[in-house]
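Annotated sample (chain length 185).
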Amino acid sequence: MSDQQTVTDQPSAPDGGNSAGEPNSGTRTRVFTVIAGVLVVALVAGVGWLGWGYLQDRATEQARVDSVAAASAQAEAMLSYNYNEVDQQLAAASDGLTGDFRSEYETLVEQTIAPGAKEKKITVQATVQAGSVVSATPDDAVVLLFVNQVTTSEEMPDAATTGSRVRMEMHKDGDRWLTGRLSPV
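Output written by the structure step:
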């Protein structure tokens, strides 16, 4: 028997492939389908992750805008009063504060600010000149405000203007931004 005859007499693989283990076209199709499926799942997961990041960035940017506006309004309400209406004005301002800070503020108003304002007939008008966000997430922000206060009293009827900086910690509660802390800087 010749060498040529031995090679040609070997049976071919039953699936149409050769006996060396090369996959046939059906196996290749299945492999490509699995790879395509994995790529589609990875693509969908990547797009979802990028979409979530985009939404978080938009929410944080909106928080930056909204928290500065809320902090400015709240600072003016907390720091402005007229001795004739100090109790009502500062009680209304406490509505924009969080639990613990609200209690501290109300105690300060009742024990110090209101009695002193009534006794010395003090009027204070606070205006926020500028504000900026120090840090923000969609539900929390730290805001720095530059505040001018114009003060008059029975003893000093000529207005005295003072400038100050305050740091306000803001927390989102539903659709409202509440002040969790006001600290002079």
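Annotation: The chain has four helices and five strands.
Annotation: Residues 139 and 175 are 10 Å apart (CA to CA).
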